[in-house]
Each structure stands twice: as C-alpha cells, then as structure tokens.
Model the fold of this input.
Amino acid sequence: MPNPTIRPAHLDDANEISKMCELLWPDAPADEHSKEIVQLLASGHYGTLPATIFVAHDETDKLNGFLQIGLRSHADGCDPAHPVGFIEGWFVYEALRHRGIGRALMHAAEQWACAHGCIEMASDTWIDHSLSQIAHRALGFEIVDRCVHFRKHL
Done:
C-alpha cells in the first residue's frame, strides 16, 4: 500500500474535519466543532498557544482522517522544563484504519512538535477506550497515569 498523503489542513477542510470531530466526540454537533476548527485554522493557535491540524487524504483529495496538535506548557509525566506537543484529537475513518494513516498523521505531528522545540509528545484517551490505548502504545507512547475525575454541581 502506498504511503498516505498528509498535509496541513486548510480552511476549506473545516467542514469535513468537523464531521470527523462529531464522530470522535459525539456530545457536540459538527457545527459546534466547526467554529473551533475555523478559529484554529485561521489563527494557528488553540487558545494562546500554537496549534495545527494535519489531514490525510486520498488521490482525489478526499479526507481520510485528521490529527490536531497543539503546544502545552506541561503534561502529566513530561519534563516541565520544555513545552510539550499534545495530541488534542486523532481520527481515521473506521473503514480505513490499519493502513498506516494514523501513523503517518502522528509522524507529521511529531515533526511539527520538534520544530516548536518539543522533546516529548503527550496525549490522552478515555480509560475504557482500549483501541485508542493500543494505537498509542503501538506508536511508542507509554501510560504515565490513570485517573477518574469528579465534579459536583453546587
């Protein structure tokens, strides 16, 4: 199989990326995701720190997946003396998985993080999302913590 084609996302990719975001995070509709994506792509920042989105596409330029990466000042298990590249979102359509697309997206993110002075990458996933954990481990990530967060409305 040929290597997947990866490139930085463009503003005109926002609609398709937002549809993938809705599949990844179904608690919010695509139009809500779209606002955040458009702002990130237009500014090159997520909040106040640099960020970008990489997309994988086929020969017809149809998007197959995306990876959103940003800088963070710190992340659990990482050296606090350096910024950290943080994977904010990573998605490949289910029918296209196990073809190297996710790996190629991660490689592009690693290069971006290195260019921004990072010596480590971090990510997270739900504690019960075993497929995501397997994918992260296959690409060299190690588990640094497990946590259950609580909140109480007053």
